[in-house]
Specification:
The complex is a heterodimer of chains A (187) and B (430). With 187 residues, chain A is an alpha+beta fold. Chain A has two domains: 1-35; 41-174, no CATH class. Chain A contains four helices and six strands, in the order αβαβββαβαβ. Chain A has helices at 3-33, 56-59, 131-139, 160-164; strands at residues 41-45, 67-71, 107-113, 116-121, 144-148, 170-174. In chain A, the strands form three sheets. Chain A has a two-stranded antiparallel ribbon. The radius of gyration of chain A is 26 Å and the shape is elongated. The N and C termini of chain A lie far apart (85 Å). Chain B has two domains: 47-243 and 406-417, no CATH class; 278-386, no CATH class. Chain B contains 19 helices and two strands. Chain B has helices at residues 2-10, 43-66, 69-86, 93-105, 113-129, 132-136, 139-147, 156-162, 165-178, 184-187, 192-195, 201-214, 220-224, 227-236, 278-310, 315-328, 337-345, 349-386, 412-417; strands at 265-266, 395-396. Chain B has a two-stranded antiparallel ribbon. In chain B, helix 3 packs across helix 7 and helix 7 crosses helix 12 (201-214). Residues 1-14 of chain B have low confidence and may be disordered. The chains are: A alpha+beta (187), B mainly alpha (430). Chains A and B meet through helix 1, strand 4 and helix 3 of A and helix 1, helix 4, helix 5 and helix 17 of B.
Chain lengths: 187, 430
């Protein structure tokens, strides 16, 4: 007889605590899930905060980073000597590999008319090292900048590059408008 | 001439300035649009949540109903391949704790629905069926469980105090995540480096060491580090159903005594007929009344201190420290990228100082609250270890058992149930 009340008490206590746990999880989940702007946010780089440290190329969980250079052509000066394309002090102003800043040759340079050249990014080759961005920002118009490409981004809980970014240039943006593009008004 | 022009332009601030006006093309060249790839559909997240739900149901069914170790091994392999190597350990339930903590602390932060599901579903399962998530769904558990070849017994007196470490880890992680500092659990996760087959060298090294350790010591990460495991253990303590060693009744044959590599089988503390030890019960009540409030106050105070110290680990706190060093001239050259970025952003010192002051206040308050919670959890844990509840039979520990189904086959009644040849001690049970 001594056993029975104790067992009942424990069962009751256990049931009560289980209900409490259920309530706790339910409340927290409900509060978080019903928030207005829930879910639809993705990681993106603010080009104005980026300092081109180079970590985007190495910190992404993907083998080849989801971050790649984007070119706002409307802002580009079409310079013959593009500081985003050429090494400092290039041997020749031509497409020779020794003259190029890009380690993977991901920028295509096309002659338009004298003295203008067009520069296009080949996303398949770009590794997001930001060397061209640094060159363009330092001496040019800043029409080249880094962006998280959302066809490749795997939406980590917490972006590994954002954690490493020294400039805190990563932020969450709405999924419906996942890019922070420069010179939009001109385009 | 060009060089001179460049030099003159160097003086300009760097951001998005139009130094060279876009040309007017006489040939009528069309300036191309900026191309950016479209977003992926959200389907992947829903596939993950569906896989998680299915995995949890399957793991519960296999461990509690089928009682099949083989089934769990297969499920673990699938989970390891999918959540581990295919999804690269992201999204994961262990890390979701931080998203939820940040979401609850900061109303401006929206936790993705998939992350909310990964946080809550395994916990709900734990309330009903125990730690099925650990048994067959979590890739971290699976990778350790599958390499366990020769389990060494870790003595109870060492194992149980070590099980306080997950609580410390959880407290720190919640503190840092909720104040917007960093995601500690993601940063120091031992196994994602292996899942991604690459990563920081320290991460790979720690992962490798833990993996080798897991060959001889059962699930070292789950038992002594995993912060989510602490929550799962807490909830499964009151779970509705849980695995029992015997499918039938315990004849105290002692065959399962060494079956658990995780030290989660309780030995009987008294014979079934003997009354409970009154002295132990009284001592337990006394220590509950005295130790728990004492620990809450003590660790609440300590938590506040830790909270203040933790400000230095925040990006903001770290930056403030570096700015102070730069002022004192003790900052090593070249200046770290953080300082360069801060200078470039044009933010002033007052706003930085204000941010640090706000952060300190929040960390102090949160540190005290979390410290007190930790104190209560730690005291309850130690009291439970010091004065175990009397049990008559060989039972699985409600919190520590990860439902791996290893012990079942050691029970003669299980062998009888399966129709295997068995020698039931003390004659067959009717």
């Amino acid at each position: 007889m001594a056993e029975a009340p104790g067992m009942n008490r424990r069962a009751l206590l256990s049931g009560g605590l289980r209900g409490l746990g259920l309530l706790g999880i339910g409340t927290a989940t409900g509060a978080l899930a019903t928030r207005d702007k829930r879910d639809d946010e993705v990681w993106q780089i603010d080009p104005d905060a980026c300092i081109q440290c180079g970590l985007c190329a190495t910190e992404c969980v993907l083998e080849i980073s989801a971050v790649k250079t984007v070119h706002s052509h409307g802002m580009c000066g079409y310079c013959e000597l593009c500081t985003g394309y050429f090494e400092p002090d290039p041997v020749n102003l031509d497409e020779g590999a020794e003259n190029q800043l890009c380690p993977t040759g991901a920028i295509e340079r096309t002659y338009i008319e004298h003295p203008y050249y067009e520069y296009r990014i080949k996303p398949d080759l770009c590794v997001g090292c930001g060397k061209c961005v640094k060159g363009c920002n330092m001496f040019g118009n800043g029409s080249l900048y880094l962006q998280v490409n959302h066809d490749r981004c795997v939406d980590c809980n917490r972006c590994a590059i954002a954690t490493a970014c020294p400039a805190e240039a990563f932020r969450l943006v709405p999924r419906s408008e996942p890019y922070l593009l420069r010179g939009k008004e001109e385009a | 001439m060009r060089i001179l022009l460049l030099l003159a332009l160097l003086a300009l601030p760097a951001l998005g300035i139009e130094r060279f006006p876009p040309p007017d093309f006489s040939g009528g060249h069309q300036i191309p649009e900026t191309v950016v790839p479209a977003s992926q559909a959200r389907t992947q997240a829903w596939i993950d949540v569906a896989a998680l739900s299915l995995g949890l149901l399957l793991a519960s069914w296999i461990s509690l109903r089928l009682r099949s170790r083989k089934g769990l091994v297969i499920l673990s392999l699938v989970a390891l391949a999918y959540f581990g190597f295919w999804r690269r350990g992201c999204v994961c339930a262990i890390g979701s704790v931080q998203n939820v903590a940040l979401g609850l602390a900061d109303p401006g932060y929206a936790v993705p629905l998939a992350v909310i599901a990964f946080f809550s579903l395994p916990l709900l399962t734990a309330l009903i069926w125990g730690r099925s998530f650990c048994a067959g769904v979590c890739p971290h558990g699976a990778i350790q469980d599958l390499v366990l070849v020769r389990p060494l017994k870790v003595p109870h007196w060492l194992d149980q105090p070590l099980r306080l470490l997950p609580w410390i880890y959880l407290t720190l992680a919640v503190l840092l995540a909720a104040t917007g500092g960093m995601f500690l659990i993601c940063k120091y996760d031992p196994f994602v480096g292996i899942f991604r087959m690459g990563g920081p060298r320290t991460m790979l090294l720690v992962g490798g060491v833990l993996l080798v350790l897991s060959m001889f010591v059962g699930r070292p990460y789950c038992r002594w580090l995993c912060p989510y495991g602490a929550l799962l253990g807490l909830l499964s303590r009151v779970s509705r159903f849980r695995p029992s060693v015997t499918p039938d009744h315990c004849s105290q044959c002692r065959l399962c005594e060494n079956a658990c590599p995780y030290g989660a089988i309780h030995l009987p503390t008294r014979t079934p007929t003997a009354p409970a030890d009154d002295r132990d019960a009284r001592l337990r009540t006394l220590s509950l009344l005295v130790l728990v409030p004492l620990a809450a106050v003590l660790f609440g105070w300590l938590g506040g201190k830790v909270g203040l110290v933790s400000v230095a680990w925040h990006p903001t706190g770290e930056l403030a420290g570096q700015v102070a060093m730069a002022d004192a001239g003790t900052l090593p050259e070249p200046a770290p990228d953080e300082i360069t970025a801060w200078r470039q952003s044009g933010a002033d010192r007052t706003s930085l100082n204000t941010a640090v002051a706000v952060l300190e206040e929040r960390s102090l308050t949160l540190g005290r609250i979390l410290g007190a919670i930790f104190g209560v959890a730690a005291a309850l844990h130690l009291i439970r270890v010091a004065f175990p509840r009397p049990t008559a039979d060989y039972e699985t520990d409600a919190a520590d058992c990860v439902s791996c189904a290893r012990c079942f086959s050691s029970c003669p009644y299980e062998r009888q149930r399966l129709g295997l040849p068995t020698d039931i001690p003390g004659g067959s049970h009717v």
